[in-house]
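so i finally got all the pieces together for this one. its two components total, 550 residues if u count the protein bits. some of the lines might not be protein, just check the labels. i wanna see the whole assembly predicted at once instead of chain by chain like last time, that was a mess tbh
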Amino acid sequence: MYKVFDVLEIRKDFPILNQTIHGKPLVYFDNAATTQKPQSVIQAISEYYQEFNANIHRGIHTLAEKATAEYEGTREMVRKFINASSTDEIIFTRGTTESINLVAATFGRQQVKAGDEVIITTMEHHSNIVPWQMLCEEKGATLKVIPINDAGEIILEEYEKLLSERTKLVAAVYVSNSLGTINPVKEIIDRAHAFGARVLIDGAQASAHLDINVQELNCDFYAFSSHKLYGPTGIGVLYGKRELLDSMPPYQGGGEMIKEVSFEKTTYNELPYKFEAGTPNIADTVAFKKALEYVNEISKPVAAEYEHELLTYATESLQEINGLRIVGTAKEKISIVSFVVEGVHHQDIGIILDTQGIAVRTGHHCTQPLMQRFGIPGTTRASFAMYNTKEEIDKLVKGLHRVVKMFR
Amino acid sequence: MTINQIQDEIIEEFALFDDWTDKYEYIIDIGKKLPPLSSEYKTEENKIKGCQSQVWLHAHMDGDKLLFEGDSDAVIVKGLIGLLIRVLSGQKPEDIAKATLYFIDKIGMSQHLAQTRSNGLASMVKQMKLYGIAFQAKQEVK
């Protein structure tokens, strides 16, 4: 347990941070795309392959039992992490995108009919737009979009107007990956339920920064990824309420997800295995547990408070750059700063910052409709994690001064 | 000058820089000086879409030489376009079609070509060579 939050101690846990890029110490500000991994996570992956690699669930030998126990241990850890009532409600997927596609292909196909409506927000990631567009097209349903204000906040009154008996599902992002806005998801969920609609929350950005309690939120589905939470890539989670998961048809067919197979009829396995066809990503799932342990050990609220300090510091410091405008000025934000600089293309900013060892993301951040809302082709985005420092933000500001000098 | 002679000349120029920033300052300078493509050629047809920046390319024949004009909304890409134009524009279509563009790698800019998703530059190189092939075929038909 870290008694006091000591960023220099935390940095020691992330070996990748200790390197130079183009001769400059790496400043990693692309955490909203993926976070770096602590040593314990990296080690867990090789330990799995060195010590207990075996296929899970069906084996009776010692290694298979050990691998199964570790794999299911992560499921229990995830359950606790989001406070689900049962591990039956925790489905492992490849990531947030697959989790959303799973719901669209099963619940969506089963429940959404011609004339029905699906509601999303203006600030959705393409992953939470395209699966619903595909579904609506297939079913003859309509996709409705909740508008936002200039600060990048959902306009709840407009949302109210969109809701009706025709609404079958509301799919909303908890935290915007492009703007950092924290959406009032509890209100979004409650209002949808009043119309009998189900709600899916895209928790990809939220889960590393906010305390997640799916029972309190009362969301029907919650999707997130390990790799934005200090864990490995290729493993994600779909939480679903048990009664919904039970009534949904399976997603993919194959091993693991069956009870009995004959050429005449196949019966499906129980939850959560019904939705986990084939040999899963065991190594990364096992290591994901270490990431969650790491976050718990630091304590998410403590880290979030520090990250908020970084956000405030960056928001203030960036003001000194001539012609810089922050895109996304919501009252409730996580540690993401998106900005445009007058007269300088975001790609040029990204290339020059990279020569200074600073990794930021530039472009539309897979939220093209949101960029269209703001009338811009893209932004430069700096997103902070618990291992970043104010000194690094100073380097970003210095780098941007240089950029402005070079391009204007 | 032949395509390769121009490429070698550019490689020599870049050898003078020992710092990344100097290299980019030079490219930015080329980008800023590249005459903007006139709006009649900035069409959807001439646009090469990238994830990060947009690139426009216009090609036409002048005698037996193929001429290129290009533009981008990002300055560094525009500078790289300037270099590509310097190398390829004014050459014969058949020479453009069979050219190997080694200078990009030699001046340390191949990263901008590898990231096919992030900009239209890689597609632009391909498009320039395709124009070479197309105009060569046209000439042969005549």
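The longest strand of chain A covers residues 167-173.
Chain A has a mean pLDDT of 96.
anyway lmk what u think
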